[in-house]
Sequence to fold (205 residues):
Amino acid sequence: MRCKLFFALLIMLAMFTSSTLAFRGNFVLRAASSKGPKAIRSSCIARSVSTSSIGQSATLEYRVHFQDNGKTISPWHDIPLRNGEFFNFINEIPKNTKAKMEVATKEKSNPIAQDVKKGKLRDYHGPIFWNYGCLPQTWEDPHVVHPAVNCKGDNDPLDVVEIGSTVLPTGAIAPVRTNAIFCQPISFFYFLLKGKSPRCFSYDR
Fold:
């Protein structure tokens, strides 16, 4: 059964807790357990976290790593989910590009790399029209089926798209406000607006 658009507005922020993210029903997004340094305080993100790349883009070796004051960290496990009244968005794929970049969940420190299928780098058919990324410290449980749409989680961080006008680079961390949810057969998507976007507070939750 194909999943349909089933939420018009996003779930209230109160549905998120420090240890679990849950939809109504039994589809659960369990917070990923930290395997690295203690999660960075939200107020310190902008000034302490940086990124560095290894290898040439569009190659199998290309990686974007995250550092906190020079120490390599995991963007998935060590960046906090919350940032005051916002959520922290980790951008993987910049707007108007097509290389399918994603957090490498099976690699040490989870750098961002281009996805590979059958030994070949993956690209979208054409440039996407939004910034595509994930929410840190979230995980879509592949063993739990959402009763409304009969979908399981995809064993990855929660997919999100930021629909503001600014192009965010790979590895950017931005405070965002959630606006809507969409579901397709393999994943849920959150539609977000960056906190500094002029439209960020023009929509009711």
About this structure: Residues 13-194 form a domain with the Inorganic Pyrophosphatase fold (CATH 3.90.80.10). The first strand starts at residue 20 and ends at 22.
